[in-house]
Amino acid sequence: MDVILFLIFALIAVVCAINVVVQTHPISSALSLVGVMGSLAILYLLLGAEFIAAAQVIVYAGAIMVLFVFVIMLLNAGAETKKGRSYLIPGAPLLVVFLGLTAYYVQRLFPANTMVTFGGFTKGGPREIGEALFTTYLLPFEVTSVLILVAIVGAIVLARKEIE
Amino acid sequence: MMTAVPISWFLTLSAILFALGVAGFLFRRNIITVFMSIELMLNAVNLSFVTFSYQHKEVAGHLFTFFVMVVAAAEAAVGLAIILTVFKNRSTLNIDDVNSMKN
Fold first, then answer.
1. Complex ipTM value
2. Cβ–Cβ contact A158 with B under 8 A
3. Fewer C-beta within 10 Å: chain A N or C terminus?
4. How many CB atoms lie within 10 A of CB B94?
5. Statement: B29-90 belongs to CATH 1.10.287.3510
6. A123-136 per-position pLDDT tens digit
7. Between the CA of residue A134 and those of A36, A131, B74, what are the distances in Å?
């Protein structure tokens, strides 16, 4: 059952990721990226990461991708005219060989006794995340708020109208 | 009938997604699509973090994923503002046309 779930959503993620790379129009790439993020959220649930799955849908698929689509609409971005198709002929086989080698070494490094089952990890809920976030990782959490503040100020400074 | 998924499958999926992100980053010429490829790579790394978190029965990987999401949100806000400014000054989204520092 878990294998079927994994295979379905891994397949959706890979097909959508290929679609992100090969589509010429940015809006098609953006919608495919939403597909990748949604199927990754399901895989996070399989790994017991409930909070991260929810955050993935809300922050990534919700907030960040809406920002992307908004900018694509705002700039009226059309399809790419010139494509670097000549790189694709040596690039695609190299990519496949690289991925095959990676998969081989990963299979060797991680023996078959480490299996993932649904419910095998139950510490991924909001309570455990919040406990770790406000005790062990309190300093990174506070630094993150400064980062967000700097990002807000930077975005406003970059996107505002110049005052003469 | 196998009911459990080997942990290496998740890591292989993560590697595939990361490699596709790198390919998109290198081959595409639209600045917005290049930016989306970066998001794809960040997502692949997040999957690795959560998988290792499962393997070690530790919650630390989830926290790192959380911080990566926050950094990605901040990066998207600033990066899209930069894209808006570039488009305002040059009226193009092709990264080959933005080459004033080349010569």
1. 0.90
2. yes
3. C
4. 13
5. yes
6. 888 999 999 999 99
7. 30, 6, 21
